[in-house]
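Weekly sync, protein design subgroup
Attendees: M.S., D.O., the rotation student, P.L. (late)

Item 1: inverse folding check
M.S. brought a backbone from last month's batch and wanted to see whether the design step gives back something sensible before we order anything. D.O. pointed out we never logged the input encoding, so this time it goes straight into the notes. C-alpha cells as presented (339 positions):
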C-alpha cells in the first residue's frame, strides 16, 4: 500500500474542503481530518503494516502532514487567513487593541480590606454571622433589658415575630462564643440595619466591623493599645483621637473613640454636630452577663469588644461629606476610588 499516495490525496482533499469552507464549518473539517477517527488518524493506523525500516520516515511525513493541516485550520479560526481573491483585507495584528474599561472597588470594600489587613497582622481572624437575627442574639444575650428603647419598632426593623434585621454586628459576639473555644480573637464585618430617617449623617443600612477578644486576664489597657495602634495604622501617625467614657449594655466599663475631623466649614459643623470630633467606634470590657449568655465562664475568662462603622470611617479617611454617596451607585463618586 502506498502511504505517499495516501498523504497526497488527503492533502488535496483538505485543500479542496478549505477552499469552499463556509462560516462555522471549521470544526467539522477538523474532526474529519484531525479527529480521533479522522483521515490523518487512518493514515497513522497504516504505519504498522509497513516494513519496520520504512516506519520512521513515513511517520515523520505523517507528522508533518498533521502539523500542516493544523496550522492551516488555526489560521482560518483566528481569521488571519491570507486575503481572499475577492480582495478582502487581512487583519492588521499590529494595531492597538480596544481599551478595556476598568472598574473600581467600592469604597466600603476598600476600607474593609484595609481594616482586615491591620487586624490580621495582630492575630485576629475573620468571622461572619447572620443578618437576620433572633431577639436573643441581637439584644437579650447582649444584656439589653426588655424595655430598652433600641428594641422599639421605631429603631429596629422586625421581619417576623421574634426576628429582626440585626441592628449591629455585636450579635456575632454570641455566635463566636458559642462556636469557638477561648482564647478567641476575631473581627466580624457585615451589614447592619436601623429604622432611621436617611440624612447626610445616617442611613437605614450601613456596615460595621465588630471585634472580640476573650482570653485570660485581658485588660482595658490592651483594648486601648490595640485600638490606638489601629488608628495610627489606618489614619496615619499624626491623626488626633480620644477615648471618651460611654455606656453600652454589653460592656463594662465602656468607651467611645473619636477622631478629630476639623471645624472649618459649614459642612464640618453639620457633620460633627459642632464639636469637630466624629465618633468611629464603641468599645469596652465584655460584661460578665454576656460571657455567661455565650456559655463562657466569667470567672475564668475576660474579654474586650469593639464595634466600628465602616462608612463613618471611610468618610473620615477621604473627607466624604454625605453617607448617602455610599449607596447611590453614582459612578462619578465611585470612579474616584479606581486604583
Ligand atoms: N454595637 C454598638 C453599636 O452599634 C457598637 C459597639 C459598642 C460594639 C461597644 C461593641 C462594643 O462591641 O463593645 O453602636
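Designed sequence read out in the meeting:
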Amino acid at each position: 500500500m502506498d502511504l505517499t499516495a495516501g498523504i497526497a490525496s488527503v492533502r488535496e482533499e483538505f485543500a479542496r474542503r478549505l477552499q469552499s469552507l463556509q462560516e462555522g464549518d471549521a470544526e467539522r473539517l477538523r474532526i474529519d481530518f484531525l479527529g480521533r477517527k479522522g483521515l490523518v488518524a487512518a493514515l497513522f493506523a497504516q504505519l504498522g503494516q509497513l516494513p519496520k525500516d520504512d516506519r520512521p520516515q513515513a511517520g515523520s511525513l505523517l507528522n508533518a502532514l498533521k502539523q500542516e493541516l493544523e496550522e492551516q485550520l488555526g489560521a482560518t479560526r483566528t481569521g488571519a487567513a491570507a486575503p481572499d481573491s475577492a480582495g478582502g483585507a487581512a487583519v492588521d495584528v499590529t494595531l492597538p487593541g480596544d481599551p478595556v474599561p476598568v472598574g473600581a472597588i467600592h469604597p466600603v470594600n476598600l476600607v474593609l480590606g484595609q481594616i482586615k489587613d491591620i487586624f490580621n497582622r495582630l492575630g485576629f481572624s475573620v468571622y461572619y454571622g447572620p443578618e437576620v437575627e433572633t431577639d436573643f442574639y441581637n439584644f437579650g444575650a447582649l444584656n439589653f433589658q426588655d424595655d430598652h428603647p433600641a428594641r422599639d419598632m421605631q429603631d429596629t426593623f422586625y421581619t417576623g415575630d421574634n426576628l429582626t434585621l440585626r441592628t449591629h454586628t455585636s450579635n456575632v459576639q454570641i455566635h463566636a462564643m458559642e462556636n469557638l473555644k477561648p482564647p478567641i480573637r476575631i473581627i466580624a464585618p457585615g451589614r447592619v440595619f436601623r429604622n432611621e430617617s436617611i440624612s447626610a449623617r445616617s442611613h437605614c443600612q450601613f456596615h460595621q466591623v465588630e471585634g472580640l477578644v476573650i482570653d485570660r486576664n485581658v485588660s482595658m489597657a490592651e483594648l486601648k493599645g490595640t485600638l490606638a495602634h489601629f488608628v495610627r495604622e489606618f489614619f496615619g501617625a499624626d491623626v488626633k483621637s480620644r477615648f471618651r467614657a460611654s455606656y453600652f449594655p454589653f460592656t463594662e466599663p465602656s468607651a467611645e473613640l473619636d477622631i478629630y475631623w476639623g471645624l472649618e466649614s459649614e459642612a464640618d459643623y453639620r457633620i460633627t454636630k459642632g464639636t469637630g470630633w466624629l465618633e468611629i467606634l464603641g468599645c469596652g470590657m465584655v460584661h460578665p452577663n454576656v460571657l455567661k449568655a455565650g456559655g463562657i465562664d466569667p470567672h475564668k475568662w475576660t474579654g474586650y469588644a469593639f464595634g466600628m462603622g465602616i462608612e463613618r470611617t471611610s468618610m473620615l479617611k477621604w473627607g466624604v461629606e454625605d453617607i448617602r454617596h455610599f449607596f447611590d451607585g453614582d459612578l462619578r463618586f465611585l470612579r474616584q476610588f479606581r486604583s
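Discussion: The chain has two domains: 3-81, 107-337. Residues 168, 170, 210, 248, 251, 282-284, 305-307 surround 3,4-dihydroxyphenylalanine (CB under 6 Å).
Action: P.L. to compare against the previous round before Friday.
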